[in-house]
């Protein structure tokens, strides 16, 4: 059995070389496109994260302001109660002290 062998000609080699160069250029273009898309996505995500962080900071500040105003209100209310009913306040404080002492006493 005889096999037919064909030798690549100069034209075929040149065409293959051109196709390889075209593939290299296409791959480089795809790489640039993917890099650009990745950078855009990172920028968009970074912007979203920064917006969410700012919103969380604002909510945290609002919560702290609310907590501070509540502490001031309750402190004023407790002070007013002590001034209006000093003996009752003293008895409650003594009772809380005794209860705390019983709970923390070592046996």
UniProtKB/TrEMBL annotation:
In terms of Pfam families, this protein maps to: DUF883_C (PF19029)
Annotated coiled-coil positions are 13-40
Q: Which residues form the DUF883 domain?
A: 78-107
The record lists the membrane-crossing segments as 87-105
Q: Which domain of life is it from?
A: Bacteria
**Keywords for the protein's UniProt record, in alphabetical order:** Coiled coil, Membrane, Transmembrane, Transmembrane helix
Q: What is this protein called?
A: Membrane-anchored ribosome-binding protein, inhibits growth in stationary phase, ElaB/YqjD/DUF883 family
């Amino acid at each position: 059995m005889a096999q037919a062998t064909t030798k690549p000609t100069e034209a075929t080699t040149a065409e293959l070389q051109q196709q390889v160069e075209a593939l290299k250029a296409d791959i480089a273009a795809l790489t640039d496109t993917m890099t650009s898309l990745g950078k855009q996505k990172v920028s968009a995500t970074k912007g979203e994260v920064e917006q969410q962080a700012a919103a969380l900071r604002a909510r945290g500040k609002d919560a702290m302001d609310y907590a501070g105003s509540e502490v001031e209100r309750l402190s004023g209310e407790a002070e007013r109660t002590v001034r209006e009913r000093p003996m009752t306040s003293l008895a409650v404080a003594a009772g809380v002290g005794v209860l705390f002492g019983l709970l923390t006493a070592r046996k």
